[in-house]
Amino acid sequence: MERLEQNLKYTFKNKELLKNALAHSSYTNEKKGGLTSNERLEFLGDSVLSIIVSEYIYKNFPNLPEGQLTRLRASLVCEKALCTFSKQLSVGDYILLGKGERANGGAERPSILADAFEAILAAIYLDGGMEPAKKHILRFIKKELSHLENENFKDYKTELQEIIQRNPEEKLTYVLTGETGPDHDKCFTVEVHLNSNVIGEGSGHSKKNAEQAAAKKALELMGIEL
Q: Which residue is catalytic, options 42, 101, 118, 211?
């Protein structure tokens, strides 16, 4: 647990909160009468996560309309992102699982790791208040935001699609052409094709960001002012 606290950069006053945050229902169902599962903490953590991320992007992206703020928040708090954050903390090494769940690879299951991340966030919030919870989550969120290709978070794919749709016979497709790096920090390369012709290429730390980068490149090559 001490090593996990080092990874979290937070030392719990109440160690039981952290233990509870790591207790999956498969573990508590086997143990009977000991710990409760982390599901209630996960419920609270989901709300704490949402308010912290919402406040941060609201203040730091003042030009984004509500719809784009919603999409941006969704990309930052989705299961895939939270699973990645959990892996960076090595949560899978510490999570308490039932024998069957562990044998079936539960320590690597994205949903379990994402839920545990939310539960740990709630535990930090209950143990130390909003400020340490905010400090904990924002170190991941800021890094994730730095991976976005454009700080204005424009939807280049939609803009490109609207231009191409003026000619109904034209068809856009996005093709993954490369994938490098470890699981927790991959870099994807994508080409955008107009019919059979490559009109743009881009890279990003998710397929979605790579597609946005490719669409942006296509718009630039078409002479569209961005």
A: 118
